[in-house]
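Problem: given the chain below (472 residues), write out its structure.
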Amino acid sequence: MAEQRALIGVKYDDPYAVEETFQLFKIPWEWYDPSHAYDVVIARRGEVETAGAFLVDLLEKDYFAEIARILNEGLPHCHEPVVEILIDELRQVLKEHTLLVEIPPVPWGYSYIVALTHDVDITSVRERRWVSVGYAVYQCLRKGMVKDATCILGAKCGIGEDPWRCFEEWMRLEEDFGVRSTWFFLPEKGMAGEGAPAIRAGYYDLDPALIKTLTDGGWEVGVHGLDNWWDAGAAQDELRRVSDLTGAEVGTRVHWLLFDAGSWKKLDEAGYAYDSTFGYNDDVGFRAGTMQPYRPRGCERLLEVPLIIQDGGLFGGKTWNSSDDGGRGACLRLSEEEAMERCDEVLAYAKQYGGVVTLLWHQVSMAAPKKWGEFYRVLVERAIADEVWVASVEDVTRWFERRRKITLYFDIRENGFVIQLNGAEEGSDMANLKIFVPLHGSSIQNIGTEYQLGNTIVKITGENDKMSVYLQ
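Solution.
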């Protein structure tokens, strides 16, 4: 067998920037070795001898620095996945000069991924203060929801069913579609968090029976962080409060999406499996510039799963943590038709580039005065019609961790080549990886596993760690 080789050599002084770029853009590459022959070298002009290889000159455009900056600093009100666009620009350059074998960020058999999530700020009318209940009644009356206003008042007085306890409705909706979601619960009752206004507090205790019902049914439960984003001790305590009830690893989304430059490292050191805070309260889009889970700089294990679409950003009036200055700010306040247009723009990018569209619909959004549950149902229905993998954040991060562990090689032979997936897990029951090879289908004689032929690309299932590709 020929020596395993990467036809792309890279020389750069920031290992994180390079390695994280190639976790998102999963192709064969290696650190530049002057004794190796390459088709392409990615470096700054003058730093290496290219020996006939094509040079991607980082002095002209530093893809690594730009991608790393966006992932870790974020972008305000960004409505296109600029990291994916940068990667695709680099992809097109590389394809002109080498055979580019790639593991895209979507499993075999699916067009993209949707992660379903619910933040549990409120669990009932009865737990809320009269000022909060009164405002909800006022909103109902403004919208002509007289019956809903009466139900809310009655529930506050202990009469009738509680319309804000929507867990069973959400579970039935998702059960009907055969999908599961992630629920983020506040870890402590009556706590607003250090320096936060009192309105940020939740007024419910963690309910072991409810959490057991959810986890026994296949739903995931995580931490809706209060102080875990800034205080290392709180990060550990809040994780423990929830993980003691679930008996499993947990991820987090911080309440109100509060965050700073040190948050990821604190969450990582506390032991959270992932974070899904990096997104907008007052907009829909790509704060991280990407739809892919990624590892922030300085983290050993934590993945960030960017938040892309949330109900409050689409339909809400005001937010307590705006994307502009962290203060009070206006949300989009869209009609359902306008909101679907915005969501369609996001989903079109997901179909083009792959990755994860993370949705957030709050637990109480099913009920009046919001009643945003039907829009959520339509989004899930459309995703399933588009052959999308719809899953919890836990399942999504597990799949991406599997993909991250793989090193991709291929061995060139006289009649084709062999693709090797080093580090692939054996016996995994998760959705299979797939591999893209930019060849016309007519050039393929046979492949030793399941595959699909196209005009410009061949798709190969990654269910085996070694695949032989025979050319005509």
